[in-house]
User: What shape does this take?
Amino acid sequence: MFKKRFKKPGEFKAAFKTRRRKVCRFCEEKVRVIGFYNDRVLRRFVNERGKIVARRVSGNCAFHQRRLTTAIKRARHLAIMPFTSEYYR
Amino acid sequence: MRTYESTFILSPQADDAAFDQQIKAITDLIGNNDGKIIKEDRWGIRRMAYPIKKFTQGFYTRLVFEGNSKLLTELERFYKLEEPYIRYLTIIFEGDPHEKIFDDADSDSDRAPHAKRNEDGERQAPAKETVELAAAEIKAEEPKAEVATEVATSEPVVTDEPEKTEE
Assistant: This one.
């Protein structure tokens, strides 16, 4: 099964150990308030279709992901951010 | 009393005097209902991410103010009744209004990201130009091309002269 791909002993364990742990970027910069008007920041956490990137992908902590989500949704309401990109419309 | 922030988009079909008047209507309404304006932030005309009421641009203004619940109901009612306010958002203000906003140095740093974002908006705008604006772009490009040809013609003249002297 999955483990069979790692033939040498200890290789399976090593692959997971070497993977870099993602750190929440907002925690790094000690941001408390994520403003809906700050679209340059918000755009980094949205894919090219305009969808909000999942926490497991972006590496955000639960607190900041929650704040980010509300900020993006507010920005969408005010047409600062797109609901969907024009390409897919 | 609580601190709120209210952002609204005005219809772009108006001149600066009309924008002033429409923003003043809101600030007066807040003032008349025991409210207090803490900060007024005009972003100016911005391209919107999607059309609202068939407008592709809008005049954005963000107000931070103190007020009570009665003021908010009045404000929301006013937004709904008046036509130039094409979209609005009123939320509880987060952050430290007493530390950041009243401090001049910090308010300048607050403005700096806005200025940067506006520059970016201008930079992004040409890439996303609509068909209407594309014609204007072509017109703008033509003089540049003429200048380029002038430069190109003037350069050979300069290079021709030394050649003649060599001959």
User: Anything to note?
Assistant: Chain B has five helices and four strands.
